[in-house]
Here is the input.
Amino acid sequence: MKFSYALDATHYHANMQDIGDEIMQKVINERENYDPKGYVRADVVRALNEERLSINGLKALLSEAGSDFIEQMAQVAKAKTRQFFGNSIELFTPLYISNYCDSNCVYCGFSARNKISRLRLKDTQIATELENIAKTGLKDVLILTGESTKKSDLTYIGEACKQASKLFSNVGVEIYPLNSDEYAYLHECGVDYVVVFQETYDTEIYAQKHLGGTKRVFSYRFNAQERALMGGMRSVGFAALLGLANFRKDALATALHAHFIQQKYPHAEITLSVPRLRPTKSDGSVGSDGVSEKELFAVLCAYRIFLPYANITISTRESERFRNGVVGVTASKISAGVSVGVGEHSKNEKKGDGQFIISDCRDVEQIYTDMKTIGLAPVMSNHIYV
Here is the structure.
């Protein structure tokens, strides 16, 4: 089957807000013109000696030549992490309230094509889930849904966020993209930050991996973080799902996307994530073999050096050993007590299947203890509203 990316890229649906594509074109052009094999050792050394890492320096660190300088990159990255975040590591957890989805993404456990146990939590069930999470001491919760505007409409999500804001000092959402006025509504409901994974910045592969649903509109998804800031959000998160396309090019695009948004909105707080492909219940063969832990660590180091002030999150897609190794060096935020299914923070008779299979199953208490053992100071929230 042949896919036409161009139609999906430019054909906004009637209800989709179009804010232009200036930043998107800059990012895509940089990605397309980047040759990860076009750098040598001297380029990497030069980049590591830059007082403030340039875009060309970032390209050198993410290049194949950069793989020989992991230790040096880690030393610089750790110094930057200490400078901007001290010895702290912030803990949070996701809460999936629905796994219904109208999009058909070939790598995702929630894909509309998959025959899984679907569940949308009722308001009373959401309250119970939130209360159980709050009992662990966490103050930061990220609310997620599948990409279904019918099963997880804006009012439904907003009511969940209102409940969350009563128990948590930091509330985020990772849902389908919205218009700026809709983000403004969620902000009024208590949402502080928005996370959107672009999945891949390779426009052709994006079309091949997203076979149906509104998610096929690449440009609308790309501009979600900017619309969120226009709607009053304090913080926005960026990520590519490393392994869908050339991970070095996607890592560059992710960092530049965040960088250009930061330049346009200096007040915005930036978060970067480095998710790799993980197996799902529907397809156990989908994994992260295309990106090694060494390569992932190099991306983390490059992110920290290029965007020293940004929060960098390390999720339970990665193993306990790897997560323990990168916190404090590059990562400043770590998930704990994670469930990627629906209704798993309480004793619901029915559960909704998870989005993917996690690697690190430690509860909040264990991660809190492990962070202290490593020598870090775990904090439950970096934001307190008075």
Observations:
- The chain has one domain: 5-16+72-379.
- The domain at 5-16+72-379 is CATH 3.20.20.70 (TIM Barrel).
- Confidence is low (pLDDT under 50) at residues 1-7.
